[in-house]
Structures are given as C-alpha cells and as structure tokens.
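Standup notes
- DV: blocked on the single-chain target, sequence here:
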Amino acid sequence: MKDQLMDMLESRKDEIIEIRRHLHENPELSFKEEKTAQYILEFYKGKDVEVQSNVGNGYGIVVTIKGGKSGKNIGLRADFDALPIVEETDVPFKSKTEGVMHACGHDGHTAYLLVLADCLIQLKNEIPGTIKIIHQHAEEVPPGGAKSIVESGILDDLDHVFGIHLLPLGPTGTVGYHAGYSFNGRAYMKLKVQGRGGHGSSPHLANDAIVAGAHFVTAVQTIISRRLSPFENGVITIGSFDGKGTFNVIKDSVELEGDIRYMTDETKEKIEKEVKRLAGGLEEEFGVTCELTYETDYPPLYNDPELTAKVAEYLNNANDKDIKEVKEFPAMAPSEDFAYYAEKFPSCFFYIACTPKGEKDPYFNHHPKFDIDEDALLVAAKAVGTVVCGFYELD
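- DV (later): unblocked, structure below
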C-alpha cells in the first residue's frame, strides 16, 4: 500500500500546488474562514466518508475515514486560517484580499492534507483502523480552534494525532522532528496603572503613572534573569506602552500589554506568579492602583518521545526520492495550538523544510515576503503518508 500511496501522491503533485495557490489567493482571517471551509467541504462532496462541519467554536471540519479492518484510530491535522498582513511577495497568485495573507503556510498545510486524505479514502479498505482528518480553523488567534475541537468530544476515540508545519529551516526534502517540549506556551498580559494626573511643573501634587509603568517594564525583565533557572526558557515582551499625552502634563494612567512565552508548565506558573507579585508591589512602591489582566493562551507543545521516535524511524526508513534527509530540529520559540491535541493524546508535530530554491536567508513565517518552495508540499504529503503507513504497518 505504501508504494501505491506514494505513486498516487506523486501523480497529484500539480493538484496539490493548484489547491495551495487557490487558497493563497483567497485568504481569510481566524474565525472568519467561511469560504475556505466551503471550499474544503466541496472537495469532499460525494466521497465515501463522514464529514462534520462547524466543529468547535468556528468553521472546523472533521472527516472520518473508516478503514476496512479494526485497529487504532489516529487524527491528521492541518490549519487553514491566514494572517492580517499585507503581502509583499512577487508571485502571480498573490493574495486578492487586501491586508490578509497566508504568511504562515496554512494554505500549504490544507492543500497537502486534502489530497492525502483523498488518496487514503481510495485505499481505506486496507487501513486497520479509523483516520480522522482535522481541518482546523483559527490557529493564529486565541483561544484558537484546537481547544474547542478537542472539547467537543468528536476526537475522543483517537489514540494519537499527527501534524506538520512548513518552516524555511532547510532545503526542500528535509524533514525535522523534536521529542518532548517542542513549541513554547503563550500568555497575554495587560496592566493598567492608575496614578493621579497633574501639571508637569508640580510633580509633588500628582502621582506619575508613566514613572510607575516604566519601572514595571524594567522590573518585569528580572523575572527572566533572576527568577528562572539559566536552564529554563522564558520570554517577556512588553509590546505596547500607551502613555501618549501632552509634554507638560503628568499622565493620570497608562496601559501596557505584553507577550509571555515559556517552554514548560512549571515555568509558566513561575512567571505568572512573579508578574502578579510585581504588579502588587508597584501599588505599594508608587502608591498607584493596578488592574492586571493575565490570560493563558496556548500551552507548551509536548511531543510524546516514544511516538516521536517511531515517526523518526518511519521517515528514516522511507526510502523515498523526495524525503532526502531526516534530522532532529531544535525546540521552537513560537506557539502552536496543536498543543491542545498533544495534551489530550500522545501526539507528534513535526516539520517540513520549505526554503525557496536559491534563497540563503529566507523570510520566516509571518513575514510579508514569506514564501515556500512548492515542491515541499509533496514532501509534506509523502512524509505524513509514510507515518500513516508505518504506524499501521502497511508496506
């Protein structure tokens, strides 16, 4: 079956690219992917599968491929939302939607999985188990789509979930993996510092919120440098400080917003505790009042070590002309809501290198000039297909 599946995928390479280009031209933002969902549903129309739409808190779609034999059940996931970015690439299939772009590769994720799923449908009598194809909405914007799909219960019968991400971290043909904690978790912080406004000439009659807020910006960085072990990963970024006013007026209040990243649940708890402690200390030290909003977005993504070792083994034994190198990748600093599947089931999320040919310093995901080598789409389909065949021992 494996050879048959690989031949089928090769014969449909141009179709995968065509689907990717259509999706790239017609991107939709998280929770607004109505037409993209319609396109996906249309693809499965008339096929011998169960299709469930509007799964979770948006346009999620789950397609159930019931194999001809009993066995374990797995999920294959791809996301399909885009980003609020003005595209700056020079390609003939550039985004037609102003200010929206597939700058993270989700168009490619969806394209490869649609064709792979169709091939698996045609071969389903050979599959000893059930495969659920998870077309997920809203990966980019918390609370995301994954959490709600997991909570819906529609995946409760799964044993494992697999997924990939296109990343320009090597030449096409390279497939990467990482066991254990692999993507950062993420939290959002907003702090309103309320002081007392006044005249710039008489600070003693006021209580300057900017001074208190500026102190917090500096102090919060000591959480990383003085509260975390040198062997722990954590990042706190204050990305917004809304303190604009008039040059000779002491600000009455300021608002700060921050992005927080961590690689383990233990580090997450430490950072949250210290942020809250510093906000409380600001009130004591400066006599201001603080209103803190602290929201956990995505958990750290943990790749099951045993399953990941099997994935690496399947890929290393692929003996396929398009899968040229399989190597361990480092842990990634960004966040991924695939982490919710990995919390529920032993899972593996691995990486497909897609650096455009001739590029020595490619633009990374989320950049207005982000692009991929479209040959990587077939690599993605083959790599995930290889894992499916390896898992089910379909030679």
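- Follow-up: The chain is about 35% helix and 30% strand.
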